[in-house]
Amino acid sequence: MNVTDAVMKRKSTRDFLPDPIDDAVIRELLEKASRSPSGGNVQPWKIWVINGDSMAGFRQHMVDEPATTEMEYDIYPPSLWDPYRTYRFELGEQMYASIGVGRDDKPGRLKQFARNMDFFGAPAAIFCYVDRGMGKPQWSDLGMFLQTFMLLAEEARYQTCPQEAWSAAHEQVRSFTNAPEELMLFCGVAIGKANTDHPINSLVSERATVDVFATFL
Q1: Which secondary structure element, helix H or strand E, spans residue 112, and what is its range?
Q2: Per-residue pLDDT tens for 11-24?
Q3: Which of 157, 161, 165, 169 could form a disulfide with 190 if both were Cys (CB 3.0 to 4.6 A apart)?
Q4: Which pLDDT value is given to residue 183?
């Protein structure tokens, strides 16, 4: 698979098959992803992997200790403005419509959102942490690392879903991972084989055209 194919195929998968993935595969993906750009070679990413028995234990942990904490950081700016607000709103409407959940079906929407806390059924996942003292440039490094990881997963014929929603369960996650307090949970990434029969996985988010976001001087 070339880079273009991997980029075009990658999307957020929100329903996975239970098919297991070997730790060795995840280790190789992480090793290759570590070649991602990093300003000053700081390499700010800190990764915890849950898979197999640890995934089963984590799922039980989330049942015993459900997510009740406040977000550790704002995923979106307060009072998000256009066009960004519209981009986000339209994607949400399309996602819920794909599974027959209407705008007024609050229980249905909450049920779907709660699937974040189960990694949408994925057999494996990673949690990405960053030292609290790091700044915006290092958070940019995290994004590049995660994009590289997800494209490599596509090359290996696995699908992913990056999930900042885990910030709402950072205390519960930390009590399982035992990550040091000086590290902040940035996100989780579900990894596995997509359930291609589930309608939610037919969703392909729209993107603005180049003429909208780029200026050629």
Answers
A1: helix 106-114
A2: 999 999 999 999 99
A3: 161
A4: 98
Tokens at 77, concatenated: 């700016």
Which residues in 138-172 are b (16+ Cβ under 10 Å) and which e? beebbeebbebbbbbbbbbebbbbbbbbbbbbbeb
Is domain 3-75+119-204 given the CATH code 1.20.120.530 in the classification?
no
C-beta separation of 38 from 44 below 8 A: yes
- Name residue, tokens 């490599």: 152
Contact 199, 99 (CB under 8 A): yes
Four-point Cα dihedral 98, 101, 103, 109, nearest 10: -110
- By CB atoms closer than 10 A (0-12, 13-18, 19+), residue 173 is buried
Ramachandran angles phi, psi of 131, nearest 5°? -60, 135
CA-nearest of 125, 120, 124, 133 to 182 is 133
Q: Give CA 96 to chain center in angstroms.
A: 18
Distance CA 133, CA 191 (A): 28
Query: pTM score, two decimals?
Result: 0.94
Three-class secondary structure of residue 111 per DSSP: helix
